[in-house]
Amino acid sequence: MQESWRRHAVEWFTRFVDDRDSARFPVIEVDGAIVATAIGTLELGVPNPQCAKGRTVRLANLITLPEYRGRGHGTALVLDVLSWAKSIDADRVDLSATPEGKRLYDKLGFALTSAPRMKFAL
Q1: Where are the alpha helices (DSSP H) in the chain?
Q2: Distance between CA atoms of 10 and 75, rounded to whole angstroms?
Q3: What is the tens place of the pLDDT at every residue in 39-87?
Q4: What's domain 21-107's superfamily in CATH?
Q5: Rounded to 10 degrees, what is the CA torsion of 91, 43, 40, 122?
Q6: Hey, what's the torsion of the CAs at 76, 80, 82, 86, to 10 degrees?
Q7: Which residues pair with 51 in a beta bridge?
Q8: Which of 17, 62, 106, 110 has CA atoms 20 to 30 A from the CA of 75?
Q9: What share of the chain is helix, strand, coil (3-state, %, to 5)?
Q10: What's the rounded Cα separation, in Å, for the pair 79 and 26?
């Protein structure tokens, strides 16, 4: 199981790392080492009243190493993905927040939706 997801991840990153219209991978480096990163991916869906063009960016995997937290790196990464989302004409940015990250997203203007998130694993 572990090797299966890793193989799929390598294939996915290889396909999207240079596709500036479909994915964004901002990083923060300190002394040549990556200390924080995020991923933004464009999801195409059916246009609807909440997403007029059907273009949603999914913000995921916002990670800052513990010893570098509290320095604004998370905010900088989210703002980078928001700027990219605007540049590719997305309607909105969606995310799933952890309790630790919720304060950051609240501060930047994200709103909690009333739609419950459900999954079905295949």
Answers
A1: 2-16, 73-87, 102-107
A2: 27
A3: 999 999 999 998 999 999 999 999 999 999 999 999 999 999 999 999 9
A4: Gcn5-related N-acetyltransferase (GNAT) (3.40.630.30)
A5: 140
A6: 150
A7: 48
A8: 17
A9: 30, 30, 40
A10: 10
